Amino acid sequence: MLTVDTLTGEDAATHRDSVLSVWAAVFGPVDDPHEWSASPWDTHRARDGYRLVVAQDDGRLVGFAWGYTGQRGQYWSDLIAREAEPRVDGWIGGHFEFVELAVAPDARRRGIGARLHDALLEGLPQERALLATSDRADDPGVRLYASRGWASLARYGADRQVMGRMLNGRDQAVSNSSRTPAG
C-alpha cells in the first residue's frame, strides 16, 4: 500500500539513507555519502520552511520531494538572480524553492511523482514557488510540472530553465505577458 507523508527537517533525518538510495537510483551514485549528507541533505534540512515528502510502498521508500523557503544569499537563489534577471525579478526571495523530486525507476508511471508534488506544495504560506529543471519539452519532469501549473520563466546555462508557479489559490497560470507576481 502506498503512503505519502510530509516531514519537517528534524523528522526527515531518519529517512536519510533511504532518500540517498532513491537519489542514487535516479540521479546516479554519490561519490561521498558523508559529503552528500552535509550538503545538500543537512544544509537544506536546516533551512526555514524545509519539508520532505516521502512515498513508501509497503514500507519501502520509492520516492521523495523536498523544498524550503528560498532567499537571496542562498546559492541557487543567487545563481538564478545572476543568470536569469530581470526575467525572474520579483520571484526571488521568500519563495518556496522546490528543490528535488525523485521516484525510483521501478515505481514510475503510477502517479507517485504527482502525489509527491502536490503534497510538497500543500498548505504552503508562500505566494510563489520556483524550481530548476531541464529545458527539454519531452522531459518527464517538465511535463509533470507543466501539468501542475508551472510555467517557464527563463532559461539559463546550456539546457536548464527556471519555472515558476503562484500558490495558495492565486492565479495558478503564469502568463507570458506578466512574469512577476502581483502585489
Main sheet record: 7 strands, mixed
H/I helix tally: 6
Radius of gyration: 16 Å
Query: In angstroms, what separates the terminal alpha carbons?
Result: 43 Å
Structural class of the helix and strand makeup? alpha+beta
CATH fold annotation: Aminopeptidase
Query: What is the assigned CATH homologous superfamily?
Result: Gcn5-related N-acetyltransferase (GNAT)
* Corresponding CATH architecture: 3-Layer(aba) Sandwich
Q: From N to C, what is the helix and strand string?
A: EHHHEEHEHEHEE
The tally of strands reads 7
Number of domains: 1
Average pLDDT score: 91
Under the CATH scheme, which class? Alpha Beta
Ranges where pLDDT stays below 50 over 5 or more residues in a row are 171-183
- The helicity comes to 25-40%
Main-sheet strand order equals 1-2-3-4-5-7-6
Overall shape = globular
**Fraction of residues in β-strands:** 25-35%
Commentary on this structure:
This protein is α+β, with helices and mostly antiparallel strands and 183 residues long. Strand 4, helix 5 and strand 5 form a beta-alpha-beta unit. It has a single domain, classed as Gcn5-related N-acetyltransferase (GNAT) (Aminopeptidase), CATH 3.40.630.30. The longest helix has 13 residues.
Topology:
Elements: E1 2-7, H1 9-12, H2 16-27, H3 33-45, E2 51-57, E3 60-70, H4 75-84, E4 95-103, H5 112-121, E5 128-134, H6 140-147, E6 151-156, E7 160-166
Parallel strand pairs: 4-5
Antiparallel strand pairs: 1-2, 2-3, 3-4, 5-7, 6-7
